[in-house]
Give the backbone structure.
Amino acid sequence: MSRINYANIMAKYKTVGKGAVRLTQSSLYLTKPIVSTQTTYTFDILETQTATQQADEIRLNLNDEFICSTLGLYLEGDLQNPGNTGIKRLFTYAPIELNGTGVSSVQNFYNGALQISINNIVFLDKWDSRKHEFVPQTQFQNFVAGTSTSTQAQQQMSKAGMFPVEPTITLSGAKKNSIVLQLPTALTSTNVAVTDDAGGTYTYRIQRVAILMRGLNAQNGATFQS
């Protein structure tokens, strides 16, 4: 987010009497488990929704506001190998070359539509998830340290799937926020197996969907109505 946008946002807070708000670069990371009978995913946004919060999620504090500037949608995979469980990876596409039949069951994640509303006012509608599908040729090439292909692939993956949201969207801990992804068909959890340079294999289980938002966090920017 540019310095100009930062200054404009700070000026707007001052005009509504929130001059003490502190703006910092921040992120939200929200996930939901894949359910084989479900085509609608509603993401929990607040830290107070503790019943569903995962260890890797980043949610919004009740007293803060979050100004989203870029957004990404991902399939989340959990490493299944003994001794490495708990390690997660974000997939920017359904890797059908690794498990054709199984992975086809999550392909329609990239044929959905996202809607974001605040206090029942829709600010983002019919945002297609297909724009977040990114399939680099080197995504599953064996990564050998120091080679140009591995370096390029990792750099690609660090930026893939994120798109700017303009005008920006402000989520507030003091308001009713709704983030809903509607899919054409239900998804089913599946496994993908990858072979490393030494000939060993490791397995990721794709069993959650995720949304990553980056922008500015406005500390103590939320206002509760009396």
Remarks:
- Residues 25-219 form one domain.
- The first helix runs from residue 3 to 15.
- The two ends are 33 Å apart (CA to CA).
- The beta strands are 22-33, 40-43, 65-79, 88-91, 113-118, 121-128, 162-172, 177-182, 190-195, 201-219.
